[in-house]
Amino acid sequence: MDFKELTMWYDNARYEYELADEKECIITLFEITPGEKKMKNLLSEIIRIGEVRESLIIYKDNDKNIVLDGNRRISLLLIDKYPDLIEKYKISLQDTEMIKKISTLYCSVYEDLEEAYDHVESRHQGEQDGKGVVRWNSAGKQRMKEIRGQETSLGYNVIRFFKNSNLPQHAFVREHIKNISTIHRILFKKCIYEDKFGLRSKDEYDLNNDQIINKLTELFEMFYKYDPNGNVNNVYYTEDIKRFFSDLEPISNNQKEQLKLDLGDNDEGVNSKGGTEKPDDKHTSDDVPNEGETKKKRNSYKSSIVHLFNWSSKGIKINNACLNYYIKSLNSYSVDSTSIMQNRFLYDSSPIYYRIILECAIKEFTMFITVVSNRDKFNAVQEKEYNCFNSTSKTTSLVTGNKLYGIYLIAKKIKDKNKKKEINDLIKALNKINMNSVEKYDSFVDGLNEVVHGFTKTLSDEKLLEYDTITLINLQLISIMTN
């Protein structure tokens, strides 16, 4: 239905009394209930998705189509008729232009007024013992985020980790762990994450770190053995938490390995560990390194693999529990092992994991850059530079040379002074290896795809180190820009 055919409900239950006209309805929604902040949040959401998703409830009264439910949404489509309100509530020209593009709405139309009222009440009177909409609990909300590939909370990730673990030492915690909010209440306290886990912030819990997992196991065993129901009253206040876990021994600070990519400031080539390589130290494609040299390179390559498999420390997290488990299992293969199959498997298949990780990272960046307010953090990002991140793109893969080159171009325009120097160093490192054109990125992606699809079974050490460097730098660029 065209919104121009609709009439606002002047006697809306939201209002304390019947209003006089359309304009008064809009003013009341912005200034009284639900208020300007919530109205603008709804406006931003409608603009983000490009439509009004939820259907309106309409009562057809002769020649009038009265909106019994959906007056907030319809008011945002009608506000363009009142320039004084546009100015008063500081709605941008860009937003009004986006709203103008929406003309058709989904409607449930009733000719029986009582039936229409029943539908309205079912939406607004809560669960009604299951007859109405039953809201998700915190676990349900986090589960939906996981399904959509979005970042989930620490409490949810901790519960999922233990529930999915088949290790005997996790059996007790797996059986008892519950309640995301209680887990947050414990783990987010400074006396726990700093004093017991040796972390600088609550965001540094790494569920791929064995020391962290072992200490979490010990902590939750202590908590649930005291009270199998995990009553929050036992840890309600900070002092309660301090007292409850006073006997929990801390992790020493030197147990956590921190890996960083040091890009350096010289003009030499950049290798996977952030150091430099002199041209005459490199093998050509015709070189065949002896067994000792190859084993040494593969062993040193372990640090790069570990860095990538712990890439959540850069601010981007892989939320899929199965993928986390798979990567952790792959990382457990020892590159120092005497098993040639383990070494070759981990080494030659690395580009597959680069592709997986870049897929996740570009998805995060796509959600970030398509929001107008986020693009404001950059200097004049042109439409062609972020249009390749449009979710309507026909390509089935998120990893394309065009997208990676788009990240390169957008990163160069960031305004944040604190981030600019770090980004410039990363851009400089990409330039040193000639990763400054869409053709170069296309070649990089093609190389990864050839391994993914099995066309290339083995790559030279130099090529793998190059892929390693390009992946790390792009992950860092995305992390810096989206945080």
Structure write-up:
It is a single chain. 52% of the residues lie in helices and 5% in strands. It has 483 residues and is mostly helical. The chain folds into three domains: 3-130, no CATH class; 138-255, no CATH class; 269-482, no CATH class. The strands form two sheets. A four-stranded mixed β-sheet has the order 1-3-2-4, sandwiched between helices. The protein has a two-stranded antiparallel sheet with strand order 5-6.
Give the class from helix and strand content and strand pairing.
Answer: mainly alpha
Poorly predicted spans: 253-323, 333-343
Q: Main sheet: which strands, in order across?
A: 1-3-2-4
Q: What is the end-to-end distance? A: 41 Å
Q: Helix count, per DSSP?
A: 24
Taken in chain order, the helices and strands follow as EHHEEHHHEHHHHHHHHEEHHHHHHHHHHH
Structural domain count = 3
Helical content band:
40-55%
Gross morphology: globular
Percentage beta strand: under 5%
The rounded Rg comes to 28 Å
- What kind of sheet is the major sheet? 4 strands, mixed
Would you summarize the structure shown here?
The chain has 483 residues and is mainly alpha-helical. The protein is built from 24 helices and 6 strands.
Name a few traits of the molecule:
mainly alpha, four-stranded mixed β-sheet, 24 helices, 6 strands
Please describe the topology of this protein.
Elements: E1 6-8, H1 22-31, H2 36-49, E2 56-61, E3 64-69, H3 71-78, H4 83-88, H5 93-100, E4 107-110, H6 113-124, H7 138-147, H8 154-164, H9 171-176, H10 180-187, H11 190-193, H12 210-226, H13 238-244, E5 269-270, E6 276-277, H14 291-300, H15 302-309, H16 321-331, H17 340-348, H18 350-369, H19 372-375, H20 383-386, H21 401-411, H22 417-432, H23 438-452, H24 461-482
Parallel strand pairs: 1-3, 2-4
Antiparallel strand pairs: 2-3, 5-6
